[in-house]
Amino acid sequence: MNFKKIHHIAIICSDYDQSKDFYVNKLGFEIKQEIYRKERDSYKLDLALNGEYVIELFSFPDAPARPSYPEAQGLRHLAFEVEDIEESVNLLTEKGIETEEIRIDPYTHKRFTFFEDPDGLPIEMYESM
After folding, report:
1. Domain 75-129: CATH architecture, name and number where available
2. Which of the two residues, 23 and 3, has the higher pLDDT score?
3. Sequence spans of domains, the chain
4. How many CB atoms lie within 10 A of CB 38?
5. Given this model, what pLDDT does residue 70 score?
6. Is it true that domain 1-61 has CATH number 3.40.50.10420?
7. What share of the chain is helix, strand, coil (3-state, %, to 5)?
8. d(Cα 11, Cα 118) in Å, to the nearest integer?
9. What is the pTM of this model?
10. What pLDDT is attached to residue 67?
11. Cα→Cα distances 120→20, 108, 115, Å
12. Greatest extent of the chain over all pairs of C-alpha atoms, in Å
């Protein structure tokens, strides 16, 4: 294998408008493309971070719920690097998004915290400094 990088992450949401607002207006992702697929009654929203395509946000009617706790099998969480974790936590708090307490990774000694998207998907912020 000659993997270069992660191309994108696909997320199926329960409430498209709420999730679109969360990822675009609260977290600041840029919309690259939005498509409504009539035959599937489904939206597909392509989102970018710093100009790089990273997330496909899907809506599907009656999609089943999936456990999203960090200890559930499957994808554990999404993690985003930030320069200043306290500033990032404050920005989320101003937008009504609760975060866990900031912790320190016992191996790297870097600070990190978690918050959730509207469907309970765990999202981590990991300080790069």
Report:
1. Roll (3.10)
2. 23
3. 1-61, 75-129
4. 6
5. 63
6. no
7. 20, 35, 45
8. 11
9. 0.86
10. 73
11. 14, 27, 9
12. 49
